[in-house]
Design brief:
The chain is an alpha+beta fold. The protein folds into two domains: 82 residues, Penicillin-binding protein 2a (Domain 2) (Alpha-Beta Complex); 312 residues, DD-peptidase/beta-lactamase superfamily (Beta-lactamase). 41% of the residues lie in helices and 18% in strands. It has 18 helices and 19 strands. The strands form six sheets. A six-stranded mixed β-sheet has the order 4-3-2-6-14-15, with no helix packed on it. Strands 8-7-19-18-17 form a five-stranded antiparallel β-sheet, sandwiched between helices. A two-stranded parallel ribbon has the order 1-5. Strand 14 and strand 15 form a beta hairpin. The longest helix is centred in the N-terminal third of the chain and has 40 residues. It is elongated. The structure holds zinc ion. Zinc ion (ZN) binds next to helix 13.
């Protein structure tokens, strides 16, 4: 029986050729379906999740593949002026052209030699095509490139040009934004470069000593804020003295002495008897050093943190984190220096603008943004970006008090260059020493109109000297132009 049984069993296992073929086909179907599902999953994940990151990563080689089938889209100003466009040369190759030359160099960026600015930020959109799929297929079949989508930015050509002109041949930074939306209207950094010539001049630019021409000083330049930082010291004082800050008095004789340490007011001016508002308007170093010594150092550190020092900032462009390092055990001289924005504190002009914009917007910071919308080459809408809230940097009543005191700076203090008959501006000047024997960095940060802010501006002129004389007039031109146009 056993052999029979074995034979029987063996026979049951054997398959006819037909059955063999069926199961092979079935296996093949399973494998194919599994592979297909896997591929679909990957493609779906890529399209929905990773694609934007992959394409936006300026170091990714896949970019070249997209650029092979899509002609990089245009970058436009808020009113449609062309800031960057891809053109065909006579030999059929493509060049990226920047009609405004160096004026938008850092903010629009470049797309050869890596990508920077909006060229990097919007890379995904510029290399994605949303025109009619039939047109796309037609072009693909005939070997022609499809037109990439175009980016409409928040940038205002007139303001950008005015800021660029006003800075002249000085090195520095100007940034302009709408406090109630976060729309960035202008961003100028000098020294600049001509993005049309970036390929030819690359070696020259990167070998230049001490210029750092490719650095966007607005977001990446770290500077001592000087007296512009008195905004932070003032806020801390008001937070610690909510009921009696207006009782503050200080008698300034032009010099403040602390142990062996002597701190002078600007040009050793004796400001005399000062209220808090007067001390702020006159940027009295003695008063701010003196009240700084009274502040709770731990609370001061927390306030600096809430104002985005030592923090990630809501910026899509490459940026440097601002630094505030005064600890609870800081010695007196460091407290004095920190209270007037000297010492170890460093901030970027863009960070200064964000703090200013939050004050202008009742304490709430809107996330700054540069891309207004994406559209097809025909102007059909693809995607639109709306203003978004970052959060409250201070209470509304604190912002209101700061606004009034900043209006005082312009009305009867160091910011008088911004005083106008047609609007009421608010701001703060700064002159930050950074090296003995060299001129101070000049700051002005402010907004207008004080009662209903429409625009916030930060200006920083490297080695400009006095903030009131070198930086404030740049802001004045921006305010005049923008507010004059609105009427
Ligand atoms: Zn003084």
């Amino acid at each position: 029986m056993r052999p029979v049984f074995r034979r029987e069993k063996k026979r049951r296992r054997e398959k006819t050729p037909r059955q063999k073929a069926d199961s092979s086909i079935l296996l093949l179907v399973y494998v194919t379906v599994a592979l297909f599902l896997g591929l679909m999953g990957y493609v779906g994940h890529f399209l929905l999740v990773s694609r934007e990151d992959v394409i936006n990563n300026s170091y990714n080689a896949r970019l070249d593949n997209f650029a092979r089938t899509v002609e990089r889209g245009k970058i436009l100003s808020s009113n449609g002026s062309v800031l960057a466009v891809t053109e065909q040369t006579q030999d059929g190759s493509e060049i990226r052209s920047y009609p405004f030359g160096p004026v938008f160099s850092h903010v629009v960026g470049y797309s050869s030699r890596g990508k920077t600015g909006i060229e990097a930020l919007g890379n995904f959109y510029l290399l994605t095509c949303h025109v009619n799929p039939l047109d796309q297929m037609g072009r693909a079949l005939t070997g022609r490139k499809n037109p990439g989508d175009q980016i409409v930015t928040t940038l205002d050509v007139e303001l950008q040009q005015a800021a660029w002109d006003a800075l002249g041949d000085r090195n520095g930074a100007v940034a302009v934004m709408e406090p109630h939306t976060g729309r960035v209207l202008a961003m100028v950094s000098k020294p600049d470069f001509d993005p049309n010539a970036i390929g030819d001049q690359w070696d020259l630019i990167v070998s230049e000593q001490g210029q750092a021409r490719l650095v966007n000083r607005v977001t990446q330049g770290l500077y001592p804020p000087g007296s512009a930082f008195k905004i932070v010291t003032l806020l801390e004082y008001i937070m610690e003295h909510p009921g009696d800050y207006d009782q503050y008095r200080f008698d300034c004789d032009g010099q403040f002495e602390y142990g062996d340490y002597t701190l002078g007011c600007y040009h050793k001016t004796a400001h005399g008897s000062q209220s808090l508002a007067q001390a702020f308007a006159n940027s009295c170093n003695g008063a701010f050093a003196s009240l700084g010594l009274e502040l709770d150092k731990k609370a001061m550190g927390e306030t600096a943190g809430r104002l985005l020092f030592n923090r990630e900032q809501p910026l899509a462009l490459a940026y440097s984190q601002s630094r505030f390092s005064m600890g609870e055990d800081a010695p007196g001289w460091e407290v004095l220096q920190t209270s007037i924005g000297q010492g170890l504190t460093q901030m970027t002009p863009m960070h200064c603008l964000m703090v200013t914009a939050a004050i202008a917007n009742g304490g709430t910071l809107m996330n700054p943004y540069l891309i207004e919308r994406v559209e097809t080459v025909m102007g059909e809408p693809v995607k639109r970006f709306e203003p978004t809230v970052y959060g409250m940097l201070m209470e509304e009543d604190q912002a209101r008090i700061l606004t009034e005191m900043m209006a005082g700076v312009v009305e009867h203090g160091t910011g008088s260059a911004v005083k106008s008959d047609s609007y009421r501006a608010a701001g703060k000047t700064g002159s930050a020493q950074f090296e003995t024997g060299r001129e101070s960095h000049a700051w002005f940060t402010g907004f207008a109109p004080a009662e209903n802010p429409r625009i916030a501006v930060t200006v920083m002129v490297e080695e400009g000297g006095s903030g009131g004389q070198a930086a404030a007039p740049v802001a004045r031109r921006i305010f005049d132009l923008y507010l004059g146009r609105e009427e």
